[in-house]
Specification:
By secondary structure, the protein is α+β, with helices and mostly antiparallel strands. The chain folds into two domains: 75 residues, Pseudouridine synthase (2-Layer Sandwich), CATH 3.30.2350; 84 residues, Pseudouridine synthase (2-Layer Sandwich). It has three helices and ten strands; from the N terminus they run ββαββαββββββα. The strands form three sheets. A four-stranded antiparallel β-sheet has the order 1-2-4-3. Strands 5-10-9-6 form a four-stranded antiparallel β-sheet. A two-stranded antiparallel sheet has the order 7-8. Strand 1 and strand 2 form a beta hairpin. The longest helix has 12 residues. The protein is globular, with a radius of gyration of 18 Å. The protein starts with 17 loop residues before the first strand and ends in a 23-residue tail after the last helix. The relative contact order is 0.16. The C terminus is likely disordered.
Length: 205
């Protein structure tokens, strides 16, 4: 059996976590892009949402995660009972998650669903793969918000589509690999074929 070795080292994140709401049960935050949700096994990947928040809210736990390169809302439980209740809501899919992304190219359809199982593959780590045989069910919806062109150096126009992505399941890299399968990878996500633009950061983790 192949052994997965994670060599990724997250660059320092100097952005602060924005605290949007808190009470005795939970904390609602806005996670900055470039910050791990949970500390990695490598000591150099200690900095994370959980590591920072547990200093302020001892005993707090993550109910869900966002990818390293993704910014957005996260809900943090402050005790075990709340964690169990929120985790149940996520597992029963009574929580709707909506992501905003820029995709390479112009999508033909205004909305649709990608239904394709996703599997881990040690030979491709950290990439995931589409695999109907060994993969876990994965389903994502999308809605087009706008289609436009972004001007590059030299006057070249890059077609871009802004979309809302609605994952019905929560597989690793699900939205990234589903957008790649759609033929329109996420802009800046070079792991799954997204074009990199001057001045933009790679989406990793």
């Amino acid at each position: 059996m192949s052994k997965i070795i994670d060599t990724f080292i997250a660059p320092p994140c100097h952005d602060k976590i924005e605290n949007l709401y808190q009470d005795e049960s939970l904390v609602l935050i806005n996670k900055p892009a470039g910050l791990l949700s949970l500390s990695g096994k490598n000591p150099q990947n200690l900095d994370s949402v959980h590591h920072r928040l547990v200093q302020v809210f001892p005993g707090c736990t993550l109910v869900h995660r966002l990818d390293f390169g993704t910014s957005g809302l996260m809900v943090i439980a402050r005790n075990k009972a709340v964690n169990a209740a929120l985790c149940q809501q996520f597992s029963q899919r009574t929580v709707t998650k909506v992501y905003s992304a820029l995709l390479c190219g112009h999508l033909d359809d205004d909305e649709g669903v990608i239904d394709a199982a996703i599997a881990k593959d040690p030979a491709l780590f950290p990439l995931m793969s589409i695999c109907a045989t060994h993969g876990k069910p994965a389903r994502s919806g999308y809605r087009v918000v706008e289609r436009f062109y972004r001007e590059l150096e030299g006057g070249t126009l890059l077609p871009v589509t802004r979309v809302q992505l609605i994952p019905e399941t929560g597989r690793t890299h699900q939205l990234r690999i589903h957008c790649q399968l759609l033929g329109h990878p996420i802009l800046g996500c070079d792991l799954y074929g997204g074009r990199l633009l001057p001045g933009t950061e790679r989406i990793r983790g």
